[in-house]
Amino acid sequence: MSVRGGAAVVVDPFGTTALRELAELTGLQVRTSRVWPFDLGPRDRVVSTVPVPRARSGDVLGVVVGTFTPPGIGEAWPDRTVTLEEGAAGIVAHLAGDSDPSGMVVAVTGTRGGIGTTTFGAALARILAEEPLAVAFVDTDPVPRARALLELTEGISWADLAGETGPFLPHRIDASLPVWERVRVLASDHRGMAGLRPGAAVHALACALDVVVVDSGRDLDMAREFQPTLFVPVLAGDLADIEFVGRLRMSLDSSCAVVPVVRAGGAMRPEEAALRLGVEVVALGIERNGAAAAAHGSRPGERPRGAVAQAARAVARICLKQL
């Protein structure tokens, strides 16, 4: 598997400075060409100020600059065409991949506070990033526990996105996030996350990256807003949790898989929970010497033989099958 990449490609024989500047806003490498044909990478995004080969008319955005150039033999204007003056936002969004959220979104939820969704979500993101995949971990708790857990003291947080009123540009968000163990991290600091749009930010990251792991806590409405590919509820293993997962499955689109993670030490064993639910579950054992490890600075996924890392690795294997 390869990490997402690609360039913003501008086909423009007129050398339009404003169009180049819009391409640079994406944060991607910008390539320019005066004419077709030229080599394209599989993830390159293209805008053109002239007609394109007819076979490419569906995946290139046309930009009219001044004179409308008629197509030649075997050419056509792209199916979607805008003017430079009126289509600036659409041009940037197309080049940034904002219309193509092809990354996987994994929503980690819990049925109660303190059940360990943040630790588990961070461990899952860390393990997926080792594949290697381009991965982000997003924490939606307004209290800055995740940044403390991951020992992040620098880099932007939710509050730094508060002034964004237009579309979030995928690669600009991606490039500005702090990185922990190869994982981009978006979480709260002491300023919280009031007035923000978590759904829009997660959507943008899913356009730029392979996997976005979101810790949505107990807020199922917010988790659904992220349109996850995979739901991972972390359960204590009691009857109320089983009923919760049943209701959750009924409320989701059929394309969204649910993989419950059942903690050991609850009222029922993971095997019994699997029978009651009728789905595969992942067992989360008791972390041996967990308190001592935390006291010595052990972070999520750092102990490869630990219970959290083993359970996260099992979920990661399910994620990889769906990529």
Q: What does this protein structure show overall?
A:
The chain is an alpha/beta fold. The protein is built from eleven helices and 16 strands. Strands 8, 9, 10, 11, 12, 13, 14, 15 and 16 form a nine-stranded mixed β-sheet that branches. It has a five-stranded parallel β-sheet with strand order 2-1-3-5-7, covered by helices on one side. The chain has a two-stranded antiparallel ribbon with strand order 4-6. Strand 13, helix 8 and strand 14 form a beta-alpha-beta unit. Helix 3 crosses helix 11 and helix 5 packs across helix 6. The longest helix has 16 residues. The protein starts with 6 loop residues before the first strand and ends with a helix. About 2% of the residues have low confidence.
Q: State the order of secondary-structure elements, H for helix, E for strand.
A: EHEEEEEEHEHEHHEEHEHEHEEHEHH
Oligomeric assembly? single chain
Low-confidence stretches are 291-297
Estimated structural class: alpha/beta
What would the principal axes of the Cα set say about the shape?
Answer: elongated
Rounded mean pLDDT score: 85
What is the end-to-end distance?
A: 9 Å
Task: Count every helix, treating DSSP H or I runs of 4 or more residues as helices.
Answer: 11
Write down how many β-strands occur, each being a DSSP E stretch of 2 or more residues: 16
* Rounded radius of gyration (Å): 22 Å
Keyword list:
nine-stranded mixed beta sheet; 323 residues; single chain; 11 helices; 16 strands
